[in-house]
Amino acid sequence: MKMNANLMRPGNVIEHDGRLWTVLKTQIVQPGKGGAFITVEIRDVRTGTKSNGRWRTADTVEKVQVDEVETTFLFKDGENLTFMNTENYEQLVVPAEVLGEPAQFLQEGMPVTVEMIEGSPVSATLPQTVTMMITEADPVVKGQTASSSYKPAILENGTRVMVPPHVGSGTRIVINTADGTYMERAKD
Question: Does residue 125 sit in helix, strand or coil?
Answer without folding.
Answer: strand
